[in-house]
Amino acid sequence: MKFLTFITLVLLIVNGCSSNDESNPITNEKSATGFVRGNVNGSSWYSNKITTSKSGNTRIVKATLDSSNDPLYKATTLEFRISVNQTGVFGIGENEPGFQYVVKAYYTLVSRSGSADKYHKAYYDNVSTLTIGSISDKNLDADFIFNARTDDSLNTVVFTNGAIQIDF
Description:
The protein has one domain. Strands 1, 2, 3, 4, 5, 6, 7, 8, 9, 10, 11 and 12 form a 12-stranded antiparallel beta sheet that branches. The radius of gyration is 19 Å and the shape is globular. It has one helix at residues 2-16; strands at 26-31, 33-40, 43-46, 49-55, 58-66, 73-82, 88-91, 103-111, 118-123, 129-135, 139-149, 156-167. By secondary structure, it is mainly beta.
């Protein structure tokens, strides 16, 4: 009997979540002007393409640096998922037991073959932060530093002196 009550409740909840719900509309990705820059493992990094989108309360900023000289990787991308709409200093990390991060960052080496991309996730490690100076539906001005690593922790990157100044 308890099982049937549980199933009924689950069905009512699922039925109440309509696929036509517009409370969290997803806006299409669009180009942004400005820059995303920093130093990655001591070398200068400056994007040549920036896109942004918004899904619910999360602003996604994706910056790309194309590379014609690297034999293995055709580009690197830096992606931020920012789920806060106010100024301040926020830790960058992956959610873990007891901690929920409103900012996540990912650094990817995009392989020329298309099958050997290296994905790095930023972890707080008491150093990874995003300092937002201004944020709105039209712009973002922030500074950042973070440590990121692959899932197997064999490869790491350290981003320092990072800055985002974009209009969208």
